[in-house]
């Protein structure tokens, strides 16, 4: 079951995409947990046939899990709402834009079509796109060959992943089932070591299933379609040239692959804000080169990369100018080469001049330099994600409790547990000001108090009361607040669009006799109404983007690091 703010946001998303009846079914699943079809029909007061049709749509869109209940022995099918899949629908526009940037217009149309239908086979994708392309003027970027090539790239690079039977089952159910199977193999009372080994076996089994599922998207060509042996040797083609997209497999969008680009953009933005465009250019080159080997936002670091590869990637005159303009050169007679600039940036980004724990916590890269300046470079995704999460926490604290609250939160995160007297001494504030500030921070779930008893009777008068930052609790509260903000933005946008005056103006603008000359046939008042509405829409979109970025850092990057404490 989800909390109130998550339930409201998901219900609003479902209502926007599928209508109020589907939103009613989703709201019941979110508030009551997993249910059977008769229970859903009873709680929603809808006809079973209508509920069944709604569930078919939500299952097709990967929003609802379904499995057979084995707890009571009845084997009746139960349904559960997939919150993560629903919240990802807020980023569908960004996914289509990224696909267009990477694979052209054809790639964007394929991703948009799959997102609209949930999951599709390759013949259905190509048939729909080719039929839509023939209804318009012919274009070079909308031919059947272009669509086939774009589809193959999306599947081979894992932007589209197979939809299997196990993908419709909750991962928690599979984990519980596998753990029960492993525990059944243990005779007697299991020890902590055996339980840990069983959990590791389950993790390995789940990863193996995911790896096996990803292999079924492509198949080898038939022998009649393969080129001759001589031609294959002469052309030195790769093994991928002998594979085609499996026509029997249903494909869905792999959100993790698109989230990688969002994470990389955040890292590049953080580097530019801290240093300059030259440092951001070096990080962008590293991320671009290692892009194909990045499979998930849960990766702790990128693959090792040599300095020479980075220098070869930054070989244009514009890149050299950006690199040299970001460094102060002491010699005015001879300018630094691009290679020397790259090595200087790598030393700065890896905090080579500060080999302390504080310096390593503020680094973006790990640069293992060898003799002659060569070495391997890796991007520290986990370190950067931990720092971005901390910035979100400090930003929320600054907005609600000012700079004094940030000082207290930073102190507790750096030192650990302290009592109010120690906090007052370290932040240099009087005790009478620290106490109400700690109470306000505790009410916002940004800090928590723990009791350390002096004696076994746990008498409140004989206890130490220490303050700390409970990371999971703090970010859980922040995430709920962000969900509430997203819901309020959506509700405000819907309320603005339902204004009778605006509805009348929009309907008039869509009329065939007015759409020919909108500027000339609308009155001044109607133009002002449209302009005011467009400005509000723009402000709400900007705010939604900023809040969505914070949600991505807390949710997706938070899964990669677990918490800020190691």
TrEMBL record:
What subcellular compartments does it reside in? Answer: Nucleus
The highest taxon in the source lineage is: Eukaryota
Check the record and name the InterPro entries matching this protein: POLR3C_WHD, RNA_pol_III_RPC82-rel_HTH, RNA_pol_III_Rpc82_C, RPC3, TFIIE/TFIIEa_HTH, WH-like_DNA-bd_sf, WH_DNA-bd_sf
Where do the HTH TFE/IIEalpha-type domain residues begin and end? 385-475
The protein's predominant localisation is nucleus
Keywords (A to Z) from UniProt = DNA-directed RNA polymerase, Nucleus, Transcription
Compositional bias of kind Basic residues: 218-235
Positions of the UniProt region annotated as Disordered:
217-239
Similarity section: Belongs to the RNA polymerase beta chain family.
* Protein role: DNA-dependent RNA polymerase catalyzes the transcription of DNA into RNA using the four ribonucleoside triphosphates as substrates. Specific core component of RNA polymerase III which synthesizes small RNAs, such as 5S rRNA and tRNAs.
User: Whom does it interact with, and what assembly results?
Assistant: Component of the RNA polymerase III (Pol III) complex consisting of 17 subunits.
- What this protein is called in its record is DNA-directed RNA polymerase III subunit RPC3
Which species expresses this protein natively? Answer: Lentinula boryana
Q: What is the lineage of its organism?
A: Eukaryota, Fungi, Dikarya, Basidiomycota, Agaricomycotina
């Amino acid at each position: 079951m989800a909390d109130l703010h998550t339930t409201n946001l998901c219900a609003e998303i479902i209502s926007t995409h599928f209508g109020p009846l589907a939103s009613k079914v989703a709201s019941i699943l979110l508030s009551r947990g997993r249910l059977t079809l008769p229970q859903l029909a009873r709680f929603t007061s809808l006809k079973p046939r209508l509920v069944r049709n709604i569930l078919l749509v939500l299952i097709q869109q990967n929003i609802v899990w379904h499995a057979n209940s084995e707890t009571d022995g009845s084997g009746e099918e139960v349904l559960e709402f997939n919150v993560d899949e629903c919240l990802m629908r807020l980023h569908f526009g960004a996914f289509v834009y990224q696909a267009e940037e990477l694979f052209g217009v054809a790639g964007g149309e394929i991703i948009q079509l799959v997102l609209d239908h949930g999951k599709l086979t390759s013949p259905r994708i190509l048939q729909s796109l080719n039929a839509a392309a023939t209804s318009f003027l012919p274009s070079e970027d909308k031919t059947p060959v272009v669509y086939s090539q774009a589809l193959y790239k999306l599947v081979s690079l894992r932007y589209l992943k197979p939809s299997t039977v196990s993908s419709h089952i909750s991962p928690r159910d599979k984990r519980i089932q596998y753990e029960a199977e492993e525990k059944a193999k243990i005779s007697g009372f299991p020890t902590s070591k055996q339980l840990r080994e069983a959990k590791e076996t389950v993790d390995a089994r789940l990863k193996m299933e995911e790896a096996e599922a990803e292999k079924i998207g492509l198949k080898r060509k038939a022998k009649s379609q393969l080129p001759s042996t001589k031609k294959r040797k002469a052309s030195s083609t790769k093994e991928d040239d002998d594979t085609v997209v499996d026509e029997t497999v249903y494909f869905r969008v792999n959100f993790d692959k698109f989230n990688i680009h969002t994470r990389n953009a955040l890292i590049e933005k953080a580097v530019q804000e801290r240093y300059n465009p030259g440092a951001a250019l070096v990080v962008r080159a590293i991320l671009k080169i290692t892009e194909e080997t990045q499979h998930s936002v849960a990766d702790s670091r990128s693959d090792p990369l040599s300095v020479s590869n980075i220098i070869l990637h930054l070989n244009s005159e514009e890149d050299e100018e950006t690199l040299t303009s970001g460094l102060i050169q002491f010699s005015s007679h001879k300018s630094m080469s691009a290679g020397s600039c790259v090595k200087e940036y790598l030393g700065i980004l890896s905090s080579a001049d500060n080999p302390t724990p504080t310096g390593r916590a503020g680094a973006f890269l790990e640069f293992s330099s060898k003799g002659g300046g060569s070495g391997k470079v890796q991007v520290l995704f986990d370190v950067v994600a931990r720092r971005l999460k901390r910035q979100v926490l400090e930003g929320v604290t600054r907005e609600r409790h000012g700079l004094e609250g940030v000082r207290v939160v930073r102190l507790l995160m750096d030192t650990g547990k302290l009592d109010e007297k120690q906090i007052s001494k370290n932040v240099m504030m009087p005790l009478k000001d620290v106490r109400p500030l700690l109470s306000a921070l505790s009410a916002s779930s940004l800090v928590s108090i723990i009791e350390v008893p002096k004696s076994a009777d746990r008498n409140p008068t004989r206890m130490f009361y220490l303050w700390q930052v409970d990371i999971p609790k703090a970010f859980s509260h922040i995430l709920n607040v962000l969900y509430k903000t997203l819901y309020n933005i959506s509700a405000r946008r819907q309320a603005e669009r339902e204004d009778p005056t605006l509805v009348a103006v929009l309907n008039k603008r869509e009329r065939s006799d007015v759409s020919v000359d909108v500027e000339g046939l609308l009155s001044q008042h109607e133009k002002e109404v449209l302009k005011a509405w467009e400005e509000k829409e723009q402000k709400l979109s900007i705010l939604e983007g900023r809040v969505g970025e914070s949600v991505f850092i807390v949710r997706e990057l938070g899964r990669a690091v677990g918490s800020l404490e190691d």
